[in-house]
Amino acid sequence: MNAVFPGSFDPITSGHMDVLTRASRIFDHVTVTVMHNARKQGKHLFTLDERLAILHEATAHLPNVGVDTFGGLLVDYMAQQQQGLILRGLRAVSDYEYELQIAHLNRQIGEVETVFIMAATRWSFVSSTMVREIASYGGDISEMVPRASAAALRRKFADVYAARDAGRAAGTE
């Protein structure tokens, strides 16, 4: 059976990778699908092409994982690709309440089932939003994201990291 792991992945985190890696052991094939929404255009840190490149690099070691993109309703993507299940990761009860609503809607309008995998406890506090915030101040996000995301974040915030590194070298931090 195949699964689709949809999201914005801005950027992919270690929590996402935990869920994805475990799912790759359960499903025959998992497609990480970057969903792009015209209403959110310009609100992402990374462009769609950058997110796809990060995902390709971060998932290269998982032979049964592919990367794709789609704009529109997820149930339409599922029908077009003839995919089986939607895969969603959960961190906390608050995620569950939101994801349950979406799962019911997807089943109602597209007859598509959703499977939930709990992220490991150590990643329950990590979100793309928090990672972007920490990186914007030059914080250490190396444990919270795969190498591809960490490198991309360092490039995005190169001036902040350069100033932090210079301050450390000068002993002022």
From TrEMBL:
Annotated site residues (Transition state stabilizer) in this chain: H16
Pathway: Cofactor biosynthesis; coenzyme A biosynthesis; CoA from (R)-pantothenate: step 4/5
Chief location bin: cytoplasm
Keyword Transferase assigned: yes
Catalyses which reaction(s): (R)-4'-phosphopantetheine + ATP + H(+) = 3'-dephospho-CoA + diphosphate
Residues annotated as binding substrate: S8, K40, L74, R88
GO cellular component, as recorded: cytoplasm
Location within or outside the cell: Cytoplasm
Binding partners and assembly: Homohexamer.
Name of protein: Phosphopantetheine adenylyltransferase
UniProt source species: Deinococcus terrestris
